[in-house]
Automatic annotation (TrEMBL):
Keywords: ATP-binding, Cytokinin biosynthesis, Nucleotide-binding, Transferase, Transit peptide. It is an enzyme of class 2 (transferase). Pfam families: IPPT. InterPro entries: Dimethylallyltransferase, P-loop_NTPase. SUPFAM superfamilies: P-loop containing nucleoside triphosphate hydrolases (SSF52540). GO terms for biological process: cytokinin biosynthetic process; tRNA modification. This is adenylate dimethylallyltransferase (ADP/ATP-dependent). Involved in cytokinin biosynthesis. Catalyzes the transfer of an isopentenyl group from dimethylallyl diphosphate (DMAPP) to ATP and ADP. It catalyses: dimethylallyl diphosphate + ATP = N(6)-(dimethylallyl)adenosine 5'-triphosphate + diphosphate; dimethylallyl diphosphate + ADP = N(6)-(dimethylallyl)adenosine 5'-diphosphate + diphosphate. Belongs to the IPP transferase family. It comes from Psophocarpus tetragonolobus (Winged bean). Its EC number is 2.5.1.112.
Length: 324
């Protein structure tokens, strides 16, 4: 059953200033809503963002500084067109010049344009990705532009590091065995060894440099050893990245006092198959939808103005949260 609901735009009054004994008219500022999904690599950020888009009319903005480039879809673990489920994605594989850096300023400019475009269609922007420096540059900009225009809700998919490291290692092995990782990496080998800019910064490219340099000049045993070493380095550096991402989330939460809702997905990674899917729904997907529902529809502050938005079918628990 399709249920019509409304997204509340929070109106915050500007302080009344006395003038000749009378108060000025209060001007109401409407703020659009933005959802941010964060977490370490491999935790399930993309999955959650797409799950949310099945509950709320949404479009997704990628905030991963490597996934913005076109190419290396396997190595960078871009969500496939099939898995996107028809949800519009922005800044995902759109940068064609793979040799230059896509800076935080570039992200702020392009993501701001995307947010305006999405909200103009009365859709919910969901920003998702592991580059927390991009998120910080956008939300805590010097001119206070973002916070003056938008209310945002942060969701953090968290997984215990030992389990996440094990999952990342399995994912790298799968990329190698079944998905053609080496074939995809080969064109990005640089004889000059410059992996400091653009897409060549991606984990996987510099790690395979030594292998590509020597594979044509060594015996099979040495070649296999070089291959195993490169794969091991990818796993290690991916785990280091996850730890770095986690540290930045803690800083945003504890030092910069961002309100970030933590979803513990650890039990999901202890299960397999349908049990894992059910655990994801119970522990991550449904609770996140309830958090977003309250963020969008709850009128605790002063949400007297609404804009039409048709909510997609959702579970009774999510709908209850939206109207509590």
């Amino acid at each position: 059953m399709t249920i019509s609901m409304f997204m509340c735009r929070l109106r915050q009054p500007i302080i009344n200033v006395p003038s000749t004994g009378k108060k000025l008219n209060v001007r109401q500022l409407e703020k659009e809503k933005v959802v941010v999904v964060m977490g370490a690599t491999g935790a399930g950020k993309s999955r959650l963002s797409i799950d949310l888009a099945t509950c709320f009319p949404s479009e997704i903005i990628n905030s991963d500084k490597i996934q913005v480039y076109q190419g290396l879809d396997i190595v960078t673990n871009k969500v496939s067109k099939e898995d996107q489920g028809g949800v519009p994605h922005h800044l995902l594989g759109t940068v064609l010049d793979t040799n230059t850096d896509f800076t935080a300023n570039d992200f702020c400019d392009t993501s701001s344009e995307a947010i305006q475009s999405i909200t103009s269609r009365h859709h919910l922007p969901i920003i998702v990705g592991g580059s927390n420096s991009y998120l910080e540059a956008l939300i805590d900009d010097d001119d206070y532009k973002f916070r003056s225009r938008y209310d945002f809700c942060c969701l953090w998919v968290d997984v215990a590091m030992p389990l996440l490291h094990s999952y990342v290692a399995e994912r790298v092995d799968l990329m190698f065995r079944n998905n053609g990782m080496v074939h995809e990496l080969r064109p990005f080998f640089s004889p000059t060894g410059d992996y400091s800019k653009g897409l060549r910064r991606a984990i996987g490219v510099p790690e395979f440099d030594h292998y590509f340099r020597r594979e044509g000049f060594v015996d099979d045993e040495t070649k296999q050893r070089l291959l195993e070493k490169a794969i091991k380095e990818i796993k290690l550096n991916t785990c280091k990245l996850a730890m770095k991402q986690l540290g930045k989330i803690h800083r945003l939460r504890n030092v910069k006092t961002w309100q970030i809702h933590r979803l513990d997905a650890t039990p999901v990674f202890r299960k397999r198959g349908e049990e894992a899917n059910q655990a994801w729904k119970n522990l991550v997907s449904d609770p996140s939808a309830m958090i977003v529902a309250r963020f969008l529809y709850n009128s605790k502050n002063n949400a007297n103005v609404v804009s039409g938005l048709r909510m997609k079918p959702a579970s009774d628990t999510v709908l209850a949260a939206a109207t509590c």
